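Fold it.
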Amino acid sequence: MECLKAAIHNGADAIYLGGKSFGARAFAGNFTNEELKEAVNYAHLYGVKIYVTANTIIYNNEIKDFLEYIKYLYQIGVDALIMQDIGMISLVRKIFLDIEVHASTQCHNHNSEGIKLLKSLGVTRVVLDREMSLKEIENINIDIEKEVFIHGALCNSYSGCCLFSFMNGGRSGNRGECTQVCRLPFKLIKNGKYIDTPNKYLLSTKELNTISNFDKLLDSDIVSFKIEGRMKSPSYVGYVTRLYRKLIDNHTNKVTSEEENNLKILFNRDFTSGYLFNDKVMNTSTSNHQGLEIGRVLEVTPKKIKIKLSKQNNKEELIKIEKQELERKLKDMNIKETMYDLNGGLPNEAYCMEEIRGKLDQESLKNSSSVRQTVGRIAIFILKRALYERNALISFQIYGILISSWRTNRKSIWGNTDIK
């Protein structure tokens, strides 16, 4: 619920979220039925729509329970369903005539023929595949709403077509049970022989970030922009939503260097503009959060590391020191406990050259290793500050005439709240 509120109060026009069943994020902190009702009521108070994911493949023995769940969503007033199963889309549209259905990216929406079929079934919006370019999207000339992902995690495989998790561990992404095996290290084999590779995360992708090209998206016929916030914190959901809200309202792609750095601190695996703009999407060095580079290691001894910081750092901020052996995990250290100035004191802030003391793995920490900030005061600050002023919408009746207020906007943005 905190992620939902963060998205609403930072400018989202709609929130997509999952219930406990039939969603493509089975292991996220999804909403119970009562929480879904609360979410709908809270969002509607501020004029924000709720789209519920029911986007897994449905087995025959689940159809009765699935339709009961859809009936409940219909009764509590969700604004749309996001679905994958073609048979269930057809059935739901026949039973619930006035419910809005969006075709999930799991439908593999990448060509005119498939989108025409979805439109014939009553689908009003398609979430287009993340592997499509903007030119390919604009070439789809069908009278249907287009939606794209603009920020967040990328899949390695074609949308809705990955069986890697199922083949590797029996958990299917099409049933909401993806194990994200593409984030693990792999070895390369050619003709039965192992090929030495400089990096080990051969299938891991970067994080999508379309800010630098966002003006082009605003000028396109895309009507809705989607932020992937699965398993992310309220601070991430809120801040990313706020930045794109600003870009939409000002019809620009300009952000400050501080805003760019904040995005890196909150979460990134290196950023890419994605297939939308034909950018490189792979980061084979690591699948972990990279943070923001803030300095370099100058000297390593068995008991301490001397680092030179390139930007101010503070207490209660977490850093990672990058080891040269990339197959090893990055080392986390909490500056609050371990950072000393050159006089041996514990500083509140650091600006230049500082020392970190503790039991160190001297062999794996070398001079010139990158020092990166991964969590900072910004996360706490974002949660405590109201970043987007939004008034509640009320309806009232005077002499039998209903007067209401409702804000509409052709371009919309919405954040994911799979995690409460």
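The CA atoms of residues 38 and 326 lie 45 Å apart.
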